[in-house]
Each structure stands twice: as structure tokens, then as C-alpha cells.
Amino acid sequence: MIFPLPVPVLLSAGGDGKNAGYEIHLNRSGINSIDIPREKITAEPGTSLRLRFLNRGAPIHITISSSNADMYTGFFHENQYVVDEFELTIPIRKDCREGSFNLEVISGYGVMKAQLQVHIVLPQATRPAILVEYPLQPVAHGRPHFLMIMMGIALVLYCGWLYTTIEFLNIASFIILIIGALYTWYRQQ
Q: How far apart, in whole angstroms, are the C-alpha atoms of residue 158 and residue 164?
């Protein structure tokens, strides 16, 4: 049986689509324009990020750089003259954590600039599963808090002052409130 295409071409064209890459269009919407993908750009640790630059106009000079990617990859800077298309493969380190870094694409010797944010995500198999159910409302444990008791006493004294206008009740309510707050503050230390 004769295949119409060589086997390596079929193998490279096929795949599971996980590492298909992202397309960045150059000169599509104008001279020196850079059209970045609208979807979120993600990569997993230990894989490679493939960026495919497709030029739809005159040959163009581009610069791809990243100043904050050293935690995730060894890539720093790339200058390229793109006639038709160019593929950039950025290896992602195996030992990196989740996070993100920025890639700056500059075309036409600084005329246009676009920034891509690359998100590094852990595969679902290695991501720790957190199965904690939180109550909808806080649950009270034990006795009422001392500050709450002091606030209740201060409220009763203050209401008594409002009805009777005895000045001692007003002063006593504020002193009790301050004592409760200070007691709670110093008890935590």
C-alpha cells in the first residue's frame, strides 16, 4: 500500500490536539500589525509552548522577549525575520509552579507591540484535590466571647442613660466597652 504523504508528515499533522500551538497573525489587519489569539494561552510544566507566526503581508522583522519568564522557562529573547510563517517553541520547565509570564511581540523595529500572557497550569492528575465543606454560616462553639458580654452590658447601660439621663451610666458603658476591647486584644497575644 502506498501512502500519499510520507509517514512523518502524517504523524506530525496528527496528534491529540493538546500541543497544537497558538497562531499569531502578522500584517493581517494592517502594516506591521500583530493579531494575538483571543483565547487564554496555557501550558503545562514539562511541555513546550508552540507559537506559530503567520505573515499575511510583506516580510517583517519581529522580536519576541520576556523579562519575567525565568521561573518557568529559559527563553528570554528571539529576533526573527518572517517571510511567510515561523514557529517558535518555548520549553516549559518541569519543576515550575502555577503562575503566568508575559511575552512581548514587537514588529517593524518597534512600530507595533503586543503582549501575550502565558498561564502555566498543572495537569488535573497532579493538582491536589481539596474536598472541604465549609458551613454556610459560622458555628458557635463554647461560651459567648467575653467582648460580646461586655458589649451587651455596655448597651444596656447606654440605653439606661438614654432613658434616665444619669451621666454615670453613659461613662460606665464606655469604660466597660473599652475594658472588653483591651482584654480581648491583650488575651490574643
A: 10
Query: DSSP string covering 105-124, please?
Result: EEETTTTEEEEEEEEE---T
First-to-last C-alpha distance (Å) of the chain? 82
DSSP 3-state of 150: helix
Residue 129 clears pLDDT 80, i.e. is over it? no
Report pLDDT digits (tens) over 10-49: 333 334 445 568 999 999 988 989 999 989 999 999 999 9
How far apart CA 71 and CA 44 sit, in angstroms, is 13
pLDDT at 184: 80
Does the structure show a pLDDT above 80 at 5?
no
Binned at pLDDT 50, 70 and 90, residue 143 comes out as low
Secondary structure string (H, E, C) spanning 18-79: CCCCEEEEECCCCCCCEECCCCCEEECCCCEEEEEEEECCCCEEEEEECCCCCCCCCCCEEE
Q: Strand pairing of 48-55 and 85-91? A: antiparallel
Residue type present at position 81: Y
Model pLDDT, residue 160? 93
Residue given cell 504523524 in the structure block:
11
In which region does residue 4 sit, left (phi positive, over 0), alpha (psi from -120 to 50) or beta (all else)?
alpha
Cα dist from 93 to 17, 22, 168, whole Å: 21, 19, 71
Residue range 7-120 forms a domain whose CATH class is mainly beta
